[in-house]
Amino acid sequence: MTQKKPEISKGIDWLVVWLYIILVSIGILSIFAATYREGDPILQSFLSFKTDYSRQLLFFGIGGVLAVFILLTDSKFFTATANLWYAFGMILLLLVFPFHTQVKGTQSIIRFGAFQLQPAELCKVFVNLALAKYLSRVETDFSKTRSQLIAAAIALAPAVISIMQHETGLALVYFSFFLVMFREGLPAGVLIIGFSLAVLVVATLLMEPNTLAIILTAVAALAIYLLRRQIKRRRRLLFLIMGIWFVCVGIQRFAVPYIFDNVLQPYQVKRIYDTIGKDYIPKDAREALEIEQTSGTKKKDDGDYNVKQSKIAIGSGGLSGKGLLKGTQTRYEFVPEQRTDFIFCTIGEGFGFIGSTVLMGIYFLLLMRIITIAERQRSVFSRCYAYGVASVMFFHIAINICMTVGLAPVIGIPLPFISYGGTALLTFTVLLFIMIRLDADRQMVLR
Amino acid sequence: MAGIFLVIIAQLINLQLVSGKYKELAMNNAVYPKVKYPDRGIIYDRKGKAILNNTIMYDLEVTPNQIKGVDTAYLCQLLEIDTTEFKKRIVTSILKNGRYRPSIFEDLLPPLVHARLEENIYKFPGFSLVERPVRTYPFQAAAHIMGYIGEADSNIIKRSNNFYRLGDFVGRSGLEQNYERILMGKRGVEYMIKDNKNRLVGKYENGIYDTAAIAGRNLRTYIDVEVQQLAEKLMSNKVGAVVAIEPKTGGIIAMTSGPHFDPNLLTGPDKQKNFNKLFLDVSSPLLNRAIKGQYPPGSTYKPLGALVALDEGVITSASGIGCNGAYYGCRRPVKCTEHWSGHAANLRLAIAWSCNSFFSNAFRLTIDNNKYGNAREGLTRWHDYLSRFDLGHRTGIDLPSEDGGNVPDTAAYDKEYRGSWNSCTMVTIGIGQDKLLATPLQMANAVCIVANKGYFYTPHFVEKIDGETGKDTLLNKYRRKNEVLTHISDADYETVISGMQDVVDVGTARVARIPGINVCAKTGTAENYRMIDGRRTKLKDNSMFVCFAPRENPKIAIAVVVENAGFGATWAGPIAALLMEKYLNDTLRTERLKEVERVSGANLMPGWLVREQYKADSIRAWNWFKSTNDSSAIKKLMERPVPRYVPEPEKKAKPKPAKPVPAVVKLNTDAIIPERPTIKNSRT
Fold first, then answer.
1. A336 preceded by a cis bond (ω within 30 of 0)
2. Do A329 and B194 touch (CB under 8 A)?
3. Partners of B525 in the beta sheet?
4. Collapsed DSSP state (helix, strand, coil) of residue B52
5. How confident is the model at residue A289, as a pLDDT?
6. Which value does ipTM take for this structure?
């Protein structure tokens, strides 16, 4: 470190910074549109920090300060302390168990006075750091199964704890780190198998068990028929096909029903059914009651009420939208959770197809820019980290918007930079600015 | 990644650009079109007095989420309900409209309760008094003419192509129904924004899409409400009808049907209860007998028969007949009330003394007219004349559900006598019996034709509509002069009219004399049969009377029917006389007031009504028992003595002076049938 200390702004990717500022501004505007009530003095309520939009503004400020701090930090600090942060995150997550407050059905929030902290949200940064650290180690040979398993464990440990805290949505986010691992050499087979499994599960839910079993058998028979030459030469292939068939039928026949009956909460099962467009009939009165109660805590979550209202809101926006503060759906609280998870409705209704597409365009630009940044890194650590950022953000954006337009089940995860919520905004800010800092120092080879 | 983004954008295109239903759904979600009901039109009488008007009553509304700390006991005391009822109503309103929207707690508060609540309403947060326009009949008169309004049912809504909506009020009978389009006005709409709890939070787009309600237009009628009131008073405790028409215009001055009811019964808070009561009464107070009661006209037909015979040339004004109490031209003699010789020496005398022999003979001559050669052609000609008198079909009055009466034609007799009939078969038509049936309205209208010497205007109530334009074609048919019988010579009319004047001056209806006015009239005493307990029983005759006055310039023509009341001159005559005097002189002489009291005090309700009521009640009690297994109604019935109907003696005794009997068809229906729960409609 004999180099002259560079000035902070040097090497910073200003495009990303500007996109960040634009997105947060859109966010504050949307929260304002969703929660502003006629007659409130605008300037006053923006500065009072009592309304949601002014609180979001406050968090924007805090985020700005944090960003400056991060940009002032030496990028080596992050590589050096990555594992430490991970440990800290895990402790925080575990601390939730004794100290949590029950908020809206999840048990993943710690409360300090007026301030709420959701460690599972924060942990995304730490996992990303630790994963990047692990993958960039010289001694890690990612082609080995053992390394792959360790990487998966690093990524999924917080997810498991999250699920134990009834916060399934955030837990799913951690699966997005598999995209990073894929970039670092995880065999494509894993993804293909994962995807096939997902198709199989959906098919299981949609089709009669027996019909599906017959189809699977037919596919297996067809495969054997097509591959009969090879099978003659290699007996093992036959056993492989038989094995795959056996596993598929097993999953379809036993594993999925078992998971739906015993692992998932009834309301989650119902949401999954709602998404694929089937009516879920509770098996017994106890379960029906449970669904009702869980829905009660989730505010009018009966059936696909949220999604229906959200689709109405977005659909009624039309081409150019109803204009700021003109949306009847969002202004009169027909869409629940519209300032947090369903914030996209406000944009869809207020600014229509054009507004929504522009927002999608901004996100697309941001993600492409992050991937470009990732690819221009010399250090494995920076590249992994940047890919992590892209994966997490992509997962959030895709799932959140898909959920509001009715393409995915309702999973309560926020829209990055736009949804109301201090922890989420700060987490994404930190996540993004660490990347910017690392990118600014891309000429240095880091470990 | 790009793939997923494209999928999302595709879905956005689908939601926002392709599918149009979401805009509508969002509108339905958030915009509530609040209907503003216009005031209905007012109906005035010929002197500009409002017979049917609007007034304000109050509903008590409750918003369930706001009732905290209400002194329930005190409120219940004011409303005269108990706390369980209170709780029940709150629960119902929560179920119906939710906690955040107001629902009706009690509708149409009686004035006393409203006054009590008005003072104390500040003590009951969550409760409010809401104005509601209600129809009112300031003169308590003309129930059958005015009709009433009721909520539109599914049939009306379907027939109107969904113009009406559930909860709308629509005219259900009378002028209210006939002139519905004019009286109802035009609904306005106020677009309100509602939030996710269905609370109205403000006007949509500051009300630029709102339309104001346009009040219904008023009707000016020919009715003279004082004459109408007098007619109703005179008809109290009688079954029958009175129709008074202005011959020069066809405008109806008064029309009442006995028994009648106070129209205000069907507007207030107890309207459903009252309606049920009236509906279950066997004397059918809801029936407008003036247009739906079909009576054999009896002797009141005779002037018409005389005109037909004169015009056909089968008799002359000098024709006479020797009558000594009966007509023996056919196998069965037709009895006549007069015996002395010379009472049918000519047409004038025959009309004045209402000689049955003369008119039986005249009718036979008309049918067996040598001009045509056979009775078939004669009857056809006669039928044609009667049709020109506007009998045998509906007159087309501006009231709904009118009946047409009956004028028999050849087909009717062919059917009954298999083609073998002659003028003797139907000889009693000549004295207005047999198959001849007419409504009191038709009788009055026929008198108008005689008074006008051949023309008439279709009887109607409405003279003009306020703000009438060329588009209102409703009244056109009432302004057309129908010159149906102007070809009959004036001399013939004069003969008959002179006969009718003699009826009053010297003949059967001397009770109807009014000093200084030449009244022309004809009495009628028509036989009255009815199926009672499975037997065709002859009842006391119907008392009929038709008249017009003054002779020189007819201003009023009246037909009166009083069922079961004997001679035409005993009850129907005095009623018509009083009405004529009231209308023509605008007041009654003081000595006539006693007569008013005598007539109105008389109770002529037929005796069989009690028996019929008992039967109807017991059938209902049995059906009630069958459907609910509740025998209390039957038990109550068994405590009452079983009334038997004993036919009155054939002898036509002079009617005894009216007893002050409250035997006005005693209605015990509400005691027998447990009241059905009435469903109150919520209107927001």
1. no
2. no
3. B543
4. strand
5. 61
6. 0.74
Q: How big, in percent rounded to 5, are the helix, strand and coil portions of chain B?
A: 40, 20, 40
| Residue B545 pLDDT exceeds 70 | yes
Q: How far apart are the first and last CA of chain A?
A: 15
pLDDT at A195 over 80: no
Residue of B nearest to A322 (CA): B23
Tokens of A17: 């910074």
Minimal CA separation from B88 to chain A, in Å = 26
Establish, for the pair of chains A and B, how many residue pairs have beta carbons separated by less than 8 Å.
Answer: 94
b/e map A340-355, b = 16+ CB within 10 Å: bbbbbbbbbbbbbbeb
Is a pLDDT exceeding 80 seen at residue A7?
A: no
3-state secondary structure B428-479: HHHHCCCCCEECHHHHHHHHHHHHCCCEECCCECEEEECCCCCCCCCCHHHH
Q: Provide the token pair at B383.
A: 């039928």
Domain boundaries, chain B: 2-30, 32-220, 225-231+241-274+289-462+484-601, 608-644+654-672
Integer Cα distance of B114 and A194 in angstroms: 73
φ/ψ bin of B625: left (φ > 0), alpha (ψ from -120 to 50), beta (otherwise): alpha
Q: What is the DSSP string of A85-140?
A: HHHHHHHHHHHHHHHEEEETTEEEEEEETTEEE-HHHHHHHHHHHHHHHHHH-TT-
| Contact yes or no for A16/A369 (Cβ under 8 A) | yes
By C-alpha distance, which of B377, B97, B395, B393 is closest to B252?
A: B395
CA distance linking residue A199 with residue B272, whole number of Å: 64
Mutate to test the interface with A, among B4, B6, B12 (most CBs of A within 10 A): B12
Query: Could you tell me the two tokens for B285?
Result: 């107070």
Interface probe with B: pick from A311, A320, A328, A360, most Cβ of B within 10 Å: A328
Which two structure tokens, joined as six digits, stand for A385? 């980290």
Rama region for A57: left / alpha / beta (φ>0; ψ in -120 to 50; rest): alpha
**Smallest Cα distance from A328 to chain B, Å:** 6
- Least Cα distance to B512 among B633, B433, B595 occurs for B595
What local confidence, expressed as pLDDT, does residue A285 receive?
58
Q: Do the strands B169-171 and B149-151 form a parallel or antiparallel pair, or are they unpaired?
A: antiparallel
Task: End-to-end CA distance of chain B: give it in Å, rounded.
Answer: 51
Calculate mean pLDDT across residues A415-430.
91
Residue B482 Cα distances to B400, B404, B454, B517, angstroms? 21, 18, 9, 27
The closest CB to that of A353, out of B2, B17, B21, belongs to B17
Cis amide leading into B574 (omega within 30) = no
**What is the gyration radius of the CA atoms in chain B, in angstroms?**
31
Mean pLDDT for chain A overall: 82
**Which member of B12, B19, B196 has the closest CB to residue A357?**
B12
Residue A81 CB burial class (10 angstroms; 0-12, 13-18, ≥19): middle
* Positive or negative: CA dihedral B362, B366, B367, B368: positive
The reply to whether CATH 3.90.1310.10 applies to domain B32-220 is yes
Predicted local distance difference test score (pLDDT) of residue B2: 73
For the stretch A315-370, pLDDT in tens is: 888 888 887 777 777 777 777 777 888 899 888 888 889 999 999 999 999 999 99
Closest Cβ opposite residue B195 in set A319, A333, A363: A333
Q: Give residue limits of the domains in chain A.
A: 14-194+304-440, 207-259, 265-301
Single out the residue of B279, B292, B280, B172 nearest to residue B239, CA to CA.
B292
Residue B607 DSSP label: T
C-alpha–C-alpha distance, residues A96 and B294, integer Å = 91
Kindly report the CATH number that applies to the domain delimited by B225-231+241-274+289-462+484-601.
3.40.710.10
Q: Does B31 touch chain A (CB under 8 A)?
A: yes
